[in-house]
Amino acid sequence: MKWCRQALLLSSSTLYGYPMLEFAKHEICSALTKHGIKEFIFVPYARKNYNWYTSQIKAIIEPWGFHMTGLHTYPDPVKAINASKAIFVGGGNSFLLLKTLYELNLVATIKKRVLQDGMLYIGSSAGTNVATIGIHTTNDMPIVYPPSLNGIGIVKFNINPHYIDPVESVQQQGDIRDINIRGYLKMEHSRRVVGLREGANLEVDGEKILITGINGAVLFGK
Predict the structure, then answer these.
(1) Reduced to 3 states, what is the DSSP secondary structure of residue 204?
(2) Known catalytic residues?
(3) Is residue 192 part of a domain?
(4) Model pTM score
(5) Three-class secondary structure of residue 213 per DSSP
(6) Long-range Cβ contacts of 111-114 (<8 Å, 24+ apart)
(7) Is residue 78 assigned to a domain?
């Protein structure tokens, strides 16, 4: 089956020295414009205060020429996703986000809309984590328990957002990240992991995946 998937997966929404999302403005605007999209839905479920979170992102996005509404404002989230040409899934806690998506029957809905219908998926941090095969390599604390760690499956590998390279003179930072990822890769159910540095993005266009943005990425294989 030829994939029609379209996605932009950001390591984060913030990068030191840049206002929120400014480092990815070109990529976000290009992805939306490419598909003739002027309005889309924001998914704020990775945080608890949906109205506040949506208003923060809305204040950034709308001056760029796009209209955005929060998914939490729709009485039927599944119907809203089915009618939308694009969604932006924000960052926060990956466990909370995935649990909520499962509770609202949105995991399968989003997967179908992206992989079969070509709906544009933009994700940041936790929103990037849940877009993958699973959230096994998230940096987040398990503050809630989703029914499964399996993600939406837009890409068939794991991502570690906010990836930090090991620093020889500094302990308990990047070196631990590498150790944890390699520990995961020893598990039978593991997949390859992309360590996405701050400021880096993955642009998914059908069967093509490009690393864009700032600082690049690291690929961990089994």
Answers:
(1) strand
(2) 125, 140, 162
(3) yes
(4) 0.95
(5) strand
(6) 111/152, 111/153, 111/154, 113/81, 113/82, 113/84, 114/5, 114/6, 114/7, 114/152, 114/154
(7) yes
| pLDDT tens digits for range 129-168 | 999 999 999 999 999 999 999 999 999 999 999 998 887 6
pLDDT of residue 168: 67
Number of domains in the chain: 1
In a domain, residue 79? The reply is: yes
What is the distance, to the nearest Å, from the Cα of residue 39 to the centroid of all Cα atoms in its chain?
19
Q: Which residue type, as a one-letter code, is found at position 39?
A: E
* Distance of alpha carbon 174 from alpha carbon 90, whole angstroms: 24
Measured distance CA(71)–CA(40) in Å, rounded: 10
Model confidence over 165-196: pLDDT tens digits?
887 655 555 458 889 999 999 999 999 999 99
Q: Which domain holds residue 195?
A: 6-220
CATH code where residue 112 lies: 3.40.50.880
